[in-house]
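> run fold phosphoserine phosphatase
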Amino acid sequence: MNIVCLDLEGVLVPEIWIAFSEASGIPELKKTTRDEPDYDKLMRWRLGILKEHGLGLKEIQETIAKIDPLPGAKEFLDELRSMTQVIIISDTFTQFATPLMEKLGWPTIFCNSLEVAESGEITGFKMRIENSKLTTVKALQSIGYDTIASGDSYNDLAMIKASKAGFLFKSTDKIKADNPELPAFEEYSELLGAIKKALN
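> ok
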């Protein structure tokens, strides 16, 4: 039994924080898990910047409403889901992901949640589980699934390496250079072809 585990941002949809950085005119918010491997540190830093500028969930959700999946992402996902089970495993938050899941045809997503005050200020975040991507892949394996995984960032590497087959997709030159053993693709057709081979 196979199950494909995909990252969300950078793989199926644009990076939410980069889009919000551009919309809000705050260049520091461009930093993502491609730049900072420590997700906890990255999120605390982001929340500090939001507080400093008086920005909350509403402003971020307004930006997310204008984000569309990457060109070809929904077609790729539809085809993949016709062949096998697929779960999106993301370090994003339900409050960010839900409108994007609608645009992708409601695939299953495992992600985290934000703590939001009545004022709309994001006061904190609750991670679903520690090392969520690797932990989830190992849990799926423990109930009889062979996992096939793909992502673009530092926080995807453990899930990719722990899987029966794993691929980098639209990753950075540095991550690709540091992990030469991982096949790296730029096009959905290439990734789909590699996953099809791994399914057999």
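The domain at 2-12+69-112+128-199 is CATH 3.40.50.1000 (Rossmann fold).
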